[in-house]
Amino acid sequence: MMTDSVLTIALALTWAYLLTFLALTMRGTQVAGRGVDYFSRPAGSQRWTALLFKFGFIGSGAWGLVGVLYPNLWLHWPNSLGWIPWLGLGFMLVGAFIAVGTQLQMAGSWRIGAVEATLAALVIGGFFALSRNPVFVGQMILFLGLSMFQLDTVQVILSACVWIAAIWQVRIEEPVLVKSLSQAYQAYATRIPRWLGFVKGSRR
Q: Considering only CA atoms, which of 133, 130, 9, 156 is closest in space to residue 76?
């Protein structure tokens, strides 16, 4: 079973990311001079992705707190390879770096969700030169690491919610981006992969 100190580290990293995400969203609202959280009033399929994201994010923060306060409430999976949680810690740090760095880079272009006629200028430099969706890539890496670091069924389910939401949300957003940004986004999409990589012309 994982020690209390390890659970505390996982909790601290999770909440540090969640609070940074919220702070940068507020900053993005100020820079843009408009609301940027379209998940606060989601429409269509984004109702479900918004729900999955919130369940995964808030649930992970809350579950980590439960794990620290009541460490014997839920059994963690046996871990014969003691390095797995520490590899997970590395993933968490890398994922948080990518997600937070991308949010900082976007500044006034940051938004949560996608609504036509509300998108700012297309950002193509920095992390966006490697992935069309670097925030989601960072979040997926972070929550994969959290599942490895805090090995239990509940956290795996919560992390899976984030992964499902990210993959689904990208499929929702791409048509909106094509319609709103037209040729600029289409040209960008032919050069940069959806998730991660360097291959020109890839759309995966």
A: 156
CATH T-level assignment (fold) for domain 4-191: Four Helix Bundle (Hemerythrin (Met), subunit A) (1.20.120)
Distance CA(111)–CA(118), nearest Å, equals 9
pLDDT tens, N- to C-terminus, the chain (204 residues):
455 677 788 889 999 999 999 988 888 777 766 666 656 666 677 889 989 999 999 999 999 888 888 877 766 655 555 778 889 889 999 999 999 999 998 877 777 776 655 566 788 888 999 999 999 999 999 999 999 888 888 999 999 999 999 999 999 988 888 887 778 888 888 999 999 876 555 444
Assigned token pair, 154 = 């509940």
Q: How far is CA 204 from CA 6, 173, 192, 194, 200, in A?
A: 36, 15, 9, 5, 11
Query: How many other C-beta atoms can be found within 10 angstroms of the C-beta atom of residue 60?
Result: 27
How many C-beta atoms lie closer than 10 Å to residue 15's C-beta?
14
Where on the phi/psi map is residue 197: left (φ > 0), alpha (ψ -120 to 50), or beta? left
Residue 30's H or E segment, with its range, is helix 4-32
